[in-house]
Amino acid sequence: MLLIAHRAGTDRYPEQTMAAGAFSLSEGADFAEFDVRYTKDSNVPVICHDENAKRLFGIDKRISDMTLDEFLALKRINDSTISPFTLDDLFSAGIRNVLLHLKCTYREYGPLLGVIRKHNAENTVVLGIQETEGNAVVRAYDSRIRILAFMHEKGNLDDFLSTSCDFIRLWEPWLDDESVRRIHEAGKGIWVMSGTPGTVGYTDFRNLLKWKEMGIDGVLINEIIKAKAVLGDAR
């Protein structure tokens, strides 16, 4: 069962930082997750989980309403040495094996796909898409890029099963034998988002062994070191 460091992992470094992603991968994560957005004035994909900069940076403003220069000048509230960065910066730092959760519409995929190609990352990246239309856009660009369906609702399962995505993300509360059977029969893998929207990334670690027995293919979780210790050779 693959381990995906949710928000790049929180074992040692702040979420969604390059340090967190590099550390998680060095500790055995198979992928580190980063979220991709755009500022209002550019086609440069940037890394930021939140829609608004208030929680992390103390500025009550949407990322999509900022200029690129404004965004890159932000400083973390709890550590002023940490600044935001772009997708190009992430790859330039040598970080590979990433899950990119695309917080943009499929019509905006062009620039980020271009950055992936620039860094020859087609074989190491997984793209998390939120719209079924995005599947065809990615496949037409490069069939080597793997796709994870980030469904908004469990009821969207049929829509994504009809696409050629490689994996489907299920929230922990959505897990049931019938969904697992249907997804695997369709030839797709299942990645579980641990926790709930209120406790995202955290779960009872005993669930990992249960999910492994169910045939779950991957889990998004915050604490990679603990997860790896629980799974041990069971991975």
UniProtKB/TrEMBL annotation:
Name of one Pfam family that matches: GDPD
Gene3D superfamilies: Phosphatidylinositol (PI) phosphodiesterase
Domain GP-PDE: 1-231
Gene Ontology terms, MF aspect: phosphoric diester hydrolase activity
UniProt xrefs under PROSITE patterns: GP_PDE (PS51704)
Lineage top rank: taxon: Bacteria
Any one Gene Ontology BP term: lipid metabolic process
InterPro entries named in the record: GP_PDE_dom (IPR030395), PLC-like_Pdiesterase_TIM-brl (IPR017946)
PANTHER family with a match to the protein in the record: GLYCEROPHOSPHORYL DIESTER PHOSPHODIESTERASE, PHOSPHODIESTERASE
Name of the protein described by the UniProt record: GP-PDE domain-containing protein
